[in-house]
Amino acid sequence: RVRPLTCTETRRGDRRVVHSLGDGTIHVSATSPLGDRRVFDAGSSQEAVFEGSGMRQLVELAIDGETQPAAPGLLGLMQRSFACLLEQSQSRGSDLALSASYLEIYNEQVRDLLRPGPPCALPLRWSKTRGFYVENQLSVDFKSLEAIADLLLQGSQRRRTSAHALNRHSSRSHALLTIHVRSRAVSAHPALGTWRPSACPSKQGTLCFVDLAGSERVKETGSSGELSVEANNINRSLLALGHCISLLAKPRGKQMHIPYRDSKLTRLLARSLGGSGITLMVACISPSSHCLSETLSTLHYASRARRVTTRP
């Protein structure tokens, strides 16, 4: 997704070096065209990205789940996904139980964004049945769009941000909002006109929204002290994620050990990257000539991720 030029970039006289060719191909000046599944130029609306990227299908897949044995134009992608989730749950005649958890990874510590009180580090555990999971993480039930929107706002306000030379509200952590969907099909009683549970097995699905903090060049951001420590931890975890993606993108016969344990981020994304999940990556880039190297790096990062195949 290509964002518009900012006011600062326009005043500085930056050139637009990124252009969509309209056929799923993006052209960056001084390079060959790069192919992607979908390209959304600076004029694309939130609705166009939501519908065109496949995010609606991900919401529907989360509702379909896995069988267990015995709004306005400014609404963002997450809000549109919440609305779609609730709309689908009503139209499908399913008895859905919805809950949400929200955490951030700050300086390699996992912190709960919904639990009251000062943020504290939570332990990250491993089990054969659950994989990597966060111990004692709070999960909150919700039944309406207003309720989940309030949870998102509450958690986002607690997330760690700071100002530096390029951004007054720079995210200093990676954030993961997870929606847990549990359903049991219901059917109408023909005589009484009431609803009752059917004999169909229960289903459960998970929809995880991941907001990655951007990689930083300390020379560009002017970061020092605590900001520099934060930037180093962000870059280190993104490097670990990129390494896992590169190994997963290799042909199956040539794959080796995937080092998910190299960072908290890759541990929590292990199931999404190489497990039973289906993953959609939205790569946000700048059209500015000043950001050319970062744009190319992000596009190559996304191109590697596109080559990863899973068997859900």
Automatic annotation (TrEMBL):
The gene is Kif12. One of its GO terms (biological process) is mitotic spindle organization. The keyword 4Fe-4S does not apply. Its main location: cytoplasm. This is Kinesin-like protein. It comes from the Eukaryota. One of its GO terms (molecular function) is microtubule motor activity. The lineage of its organism: Eukaryota, Metazoa, Chordata, Craniata, Vertebrata. The keyword Lipoprotein does not apply.
